[in-house]
Amino acid sequence: MSKADNMLAILWLLKTRRRRTAKELAEELEMSVRTVYRYIDALCASGVPIVSDAGHNGGYSLPDHFNDAPLFFDLEEQKALVHAAAFAREAGYPNGEALNRAVAKLKRYASEEQKQELNRQETGVDAIHPHFGEEQETALKALEAAMADGCTVRLDYRKSYGQAVKRRDIDPYGLVHWKSKWYVVGFCRLRSTIRSFRVDRIEGDVVRTGERYERPADFSPREALLRDLLPGRGKEEALVTVRIQGRESAIDDLCAHWFLGHAVAERSASEAVFRLDENAAFSRMPYLLMAYGGTIRVAGPPAMKDAMVRAAARLHEYYESM
Q: What are the phi and psi torsion angles at 62 (to 5°)?
């Protein structure tokens, strides 16, 4: 371990409120007693109030007030970090190796009681996400590093399946994890506007162009992505009102759907009113509503009923021709 890691390790061991001799510290950290003395001196010089007691029952310890300093985590905070790490790993977090080292370090310097509790907590909470390949992890790391340095990147992107790959130069403003997918949000130099790109649709390497940029101070990648993905967000003046009636369980499910949940304007036990942009209402919503069969009905507008009929007819013609 580095000098900084070894010094931090000594602090973690001393925070258990039990005195430890230089020999005990040396044995636990697999270093010489002389090295322990050197690190203790360095910690004291940096302002850490290590107490040194001489005699038969002497040793090093920390005062009670220092154990409550922000440097250390209590058990609830440690459990929260372990749980958060489980979610981050499954979400395809690009710095997984560093995350694993951090959790291992947390356990290494915890008391025996804390270790047992952390192990119980770690095996009791889990998350399931789709598998992420090495290509996506590599792309995420490259995008994250470019964001930190304010560097424009060039990438080959396939907008959707079956479409041709196009080269894009973008200023990456942020990474967002949404519905088990990673998106990079930023300024697209090809379109001269803010766009979001699914990282799993990037083909090949993410390459820096040599140009630099400054991210707008008030920019929110999260809000930008939601405006891009969720129809009608931020466009209240040009929305279509769609009224759906049906069984309470079906209405509940519709209102909780990721595509429609943001668009709920009113609802009761047997009815929900949605406000969406025209394309989403008449092109995408009919196919979503078909999955609910006879448990719901379109109460308005009439154009929405016509859209449902056209969508059903297209599906009928498609399968009739197969």
A: -115, 145
Q: What is the tens place of the pLDDT at every residue in 228-241?
A: 777 655 555 578 99
Distance of alpha carbon 92 from alpha carbon 221, whole angstroms: 18
Give me the amino acid identity at 64.
D
Count the neighbouring beta carbons within 10 Å of the beta carbon of residue 314: 12
Q: pTM, whole model, 2 decimals?
A: 0.62
